[in-house]
Amino acid sequence: MRFVPAVRRRISALSGLVAATFRTASSVANDAAQALSPKHPAQVIVLAFAAAVAVGTVLLMLPVAKQGAGGASFLEALFTATSSVCVTGLITVDTPVFWSGFGHVVILVLIQVGGFGVMSFGTLLGVLMARRLGLRSRLTTATETKSTGFGDVTRVLLGVLTITAITELLLTAVLAARLMAGYGYPWGDALWHGFFHSVSSFNNAGFALYSDNLIGFAGDPWICLPIAFAVIIGGLGFPVLFELRRRYRTPVHWSMNTKLVLIGTGVLLISGTVFLTAVEWANPATLGALHPGERVLAGFFQSVITRTAGFNSVDIGQMHPVSWLGMDILMLIGGGPAGTAGGLKITTFAVLLFILTTELRGDTAVNIFGKRLSRAVHRQALTVVLLALALIVGSTMFLMLITDFGQEKILFEVISAFATVGLSTGITAAMPPAGQIVLILLMFIGRLGPVTLGVALAVRTRPVLFEYPKERPLIG
Q1: What total number of domains does the chain contain?
Q2: Is 209 in contact with 103 (CB distance < 8 Å)?
Q3: Domain-located, residue 3
């Protein structure tokens, strides 16, 4: 039986080969899993927002989420879920008519989660339940909320929750009282409408439970002014709100960020109001149909809304093209960082303005409010603006190729989506599927920020160990 040892040797060799094969496959699988797993907080944030959009899409596709028979199509649900999570407000279907009560609740929850921050919301739940955070949660939440350090993440989240709850509850009470006293709403309907528009306002989403948005309230200061106030508060950004709460009596000690946001907000509100009111004053399809006082109110309201939220008290599609161009600029600038506002942020444009002023003066350093601006901030501001402009131009050109809409309306739509504003000249629903997908991507990228998304897609796993020699090309 000499063949028995040989068989045993072959079986042993085969077993070793199989074991080695499994070890190799396991090693490859582990390497692949590590390669696909998020290595940077920015990647986690992108994946979290994508997951929220996916869950919202599935819920909105359920037959119970839509009025009438059947359910929403995949594209209708995806567009609405993305617009909700990214707190934009662009719609392809009539929100109060198309969606059921369940659908409205889903939209409201997506707005609240998206405005608060998907990772911040999840981390807050962990804080409230476990009372502690892991390192990954601290890193991710600090990145999303732009906290100054890992130790203050819990305090920041609880502060955000407090400000959100107080503002939304106060606005709900004001709106509900006005709807009951001035429009005869039953108390239940008044509370629901008040709460929905309160959450939509503070989170700068712009979703409304009226087919004409807020055009029916254009001359009502008890509706327009509280909503505008909530939009402004949400658009300042939580770092500014925290600092105002701590140091409201000592403006001289405010940070550069707070000063830039507050001054920029005031300048943009005033200039936007004057511009839109003047251009649309005699337009019978917009402000011209209102009384003089109501025209000023509508001009102010639209100036507030244009930079960040998607409400409208006048017909945007009937406005003068010059107004659209001015609104493009306001939308692109947006509000303050680390809040619910969209756009490229006031601080980004303020930094570019000071850089321009410094170059024109021939100074060597950019100084703002007695402080020298870090050169890293120069690069960040230029990167954000150039990436945004490239994306806007490319998307506009593509939509011009596949649609028959004019350049003015397409540019307005693209900037509105990218800046997560939500205003529209009325062409969103008429876009072909490819055009709506472009708007979906713009909303997603605009909410996360081009730099955040870029970092998430191309994270360096090793430091650069060398630099090239310097050389200066001719400029201009």
Answers
A1: 1
A2: no
A3: no
